[in-house]
Amino acid sequence: xxxxxxxxxxxxxPSADSGLRRWIRERWTxxxxxxxxxxKGKGKVKCRPSTRVTSETPQTWGEMSxxxxxxxxRLKQKxxxxxxxxxxxxxxxxxxxxxxxxxPSINEAVNFFYDSIESKLLLEKKKKRKRKKSKxxxxxxxxxxxHPEGGLSVSYARKLGIHAGVETKRAAEKAGGFGKIKGxxxxxxxxxxxxxxGHKRKNTSAKTAADxxxxxxxxxxxxxxxx
Length: 227
Description:
2 domains; 46% helix; 3-stranded antiparallel β-sheet; mainly alpha; 227 residues; two-stranded antiparallel ribbon
């Protein structure tokens, strides 16, 4: 226990090399060599000790290379623009006053931000590759408009106000075959087959017409057309 001028204080008396006494002996200066409080240069002042007192003394200006000094000043000014305080060039961390904890340096945060964006872009590329690799039911298949069995999807056909080929196929399955369907469905199928067979004969290349996986042949199959 030691005696203070006003009252007794418990504990060991602080040494000359600790606390505020050490800080005074370290003689902290700004980046231009002036005292921290009298700095009048551009940007936020960056203070570091000019003399090492103990092993606990932070890295001094004399222990840093010109490149390290520039980096320390730059990080301090970046942190100030983001309303944070850069604590140490050596640790590369900043003190977050709101959360009362050290956070990664500005460079680390920026790198993490760009790395996360890059990883997202890579994932998107992988997804696109998988989509490309996935085998389509037939050539020219559009998942938004086409049905996997052939022709238009039911939802897209209804938007256009027409009948989908897969609906005719389901009706034929219930009736026991395309030859047994009757009424409007039979007339619709007959009209479609006549038009599409003519289109295949006149406007389709020999290669596409012979290809069983072509869009037109898939549509003809789902409607039960023979041509």
